[in-house]
Amino acid sequence: MEVADSAGLASPTASDPVRILVIGAGSRGNAYAKAIEKSSLGVIVAVSEPVEQKCLQFGRRYIWGDGEPAEGQRFGDWTEFLRWEQRRRQGESAGVSVSKAIDAVFVCTLDDLHPAIVVALAPLKVHIMCEKPLAATLHDCLDVNMALLDGGRLEEPEVVFGIAHVLRYSPHNMLLYKLLREEEVIGDIISVEHTEQIGWWHFAHSYVRVRSGNWRNKALAGESLLTKSCHDIDFLLWLLSSPPPGSQPTCMYSAKRIYRDRLRDGVTGWPVKIVLPEIEECVQRGGLDVAEEALMSRLADDYGPDTDLKTRLGRSWYGRCVWEADNTVCDDQLVTMEWRDEVHDEEHNEAIPNRRRRLPKRVSFHMVAFTEQMSQRRSRFYGTRGELEADGTTIRVQDFASGRTPTYHPSPGAGAHGGGDVGLVQHFLRAVDAVKNHGVAPGEAQRAHLGCTLDEIIRSHAVVFAAEMARKAHSVVEWSIWWKSQQESHARHWPKR
User: How confident is the model at residue 138, as a pLDDT?
Assistant: First the structure.
């Protein structure tokens, strides 16, 4: 007989189900208990939970029903089970009739107890499933590793040991793994954007409040990246540990495919016109055949090892194989920027009133070449009262307090950059007109119509150079110190250059 498991796969009904002890009857313990019950492969025979109400509710639901717990079914502290199991094994060795052994233990306690429990269970040689994270410190993780490897004498554990990296096992992610790693539907994975959205009230409940939050303080459980998202890191490592890519019969970067095929489809503008500026004249003079011949002649241009550097760098080589090109710029880059809590106005040397203070924030910017969309942007902003996502055409706001989700669809602007080119020209000309025809001071006109100052323009460029310095040096650039040194260094040499 077979039954379907939660992932839609066929699982046999066990003739001798795995006998399971659950340590910790909280939300995770109950979640796994429901999954165990549904699997038909195991049966929960005991629970360890120091909170009596939780223990009794769990036991009635999964173990002893409306009756009373038998010996070996209910334990308070997990150490109580250890002592009981040691006595049971002693009796078994002496030939005394004892309860059947526990096959596996699910460790579902608070995080700080995990390493001590696993280390204590290791000598019993029972199979273990531990809730994530394994431990709050690397030292404790290594202690668990040594305990399961019998002090380093084993190459691998003698029991099954699992960690609750649940993201690996959902139907969605198993299909994702199959598509990305086994079928390689997008080829080699070059870059990934992955975000865990915790939820505004969930974070307040579990990571902030004193009594209800089990992970509010790193001294109690560990950093939030560990306690909430260690399985996200595992998920990414799992997906990115890809096998060697298979060969591809045709190159998708082929210049013929990119330029000639577009010409055959009637495209004579960008990007074909960039390769051969006279393409439209060629079409008018002799049709597509003449234009294609001229285009292929241009694509045949290439450089070799004897081509001098000036010639090689002095023009574009649109027909060259991309894998043998000489580009040295990034095709995938992640920039992380962080703003501290603004409490002091350095320029005016005074404290900033609370009403004008800005909270600390951080931003990650991802520039990636390997996308279907071209020159499109998408953004997501997380705030204290809601979140906002934007993709260039739609803006969606989620208000936490009201639950409302207003969605905006700005009318698309004409021209490139979503109408930004036209908007820029209009705003610039309004500023100039204000100065020329209305007597407005240039600075005032710039702020009113362009919405930025020279200082902002220079700073935004400087941030790019700071980011590049950080990338090349594999370091963090402290903006205020770096920017001050750059300005002072430039001032010392100006106008001597």
Answer: 82
Which tokens hold the place of 256?
A: 């013929």
pLDDT, tens digit (0-9, with 9 covering 90-100), for 161-207: 999 888 888 888 888 888 888 877 777 777 788 877 767 666 666 65
Contact between 112 and 118 (Cβ < 8 Å): no
- Identity (one letter) of the amino acid at 430? R
Report helix angle 479-493 to 454-473, nearest 10: 110
Three-state DSSP state, 393: coil
The per-residue b/e assignment along 6-20, b for 16 or more CB within 10 angstroms, e otherwise, is eeeeeeeeeeebbbb
> Quick one: pLDDT at residue 206?
62
For residue 277, say if its preceding peptide bond is cis, omega within 30 degrees of 0.
no
| Strand locations in 143-293 (E) | 161-163
d(CA 224, CA 136): 10
Q: Read off the amino acid at residue 444.
A: E
Kindly report each contact of residues 67-72 with a partner whose C-beta sits within 8 Å and lies 24 or more positions away, as own/partner: 71/99, 72/45, 72/46, 72/99
* Cα 355–Cα 357–Cα 362 angle in degrees, nearest 5: 140
The pair of structure tokens assigned to 271 is 């990007």
Between 114-121 and 138-148, two packed helices, what is the crossing angle to 10 degrees? 10
Percent of the chain with pLDDT over 70: 84
Most confident of 311-315, 357-361, 409-413: 311-315
Asked whether the predicted pLDDT for residue 267 surpasses 80, the reply is yes
What's the CA gap between 253 and 299, in Å, rounded? 13
- CB-neighbour burial class of residue 133 (10 A; exposed 0-12, middle 13-18, buried 19+): buried
Greater confidence (204 vs 407) lies with 407
Give counts: helices (H), strands (E), the chain: 17, 16
Dihedral sign of CA atoms 101, 106, 109, 112 in order: positive
Confidence of residue 228 (pLDDT cuts 50, 70, 90): confident
Average pLDDT score, the chain: 83
Place of tokens 């990650």: 364
pLDDT 10s digits, 237-258: 888 864 443 434 467 888 888 8
Closest listed residue to residue 381, CA positions, set 130, 132, 195, 177: 195
Single out the residue of 119, 108, 131 nearest to residue 54, CA to CA.
108
Say if residues 406 and 397 touch (Cβ distance below 8 Å): yes
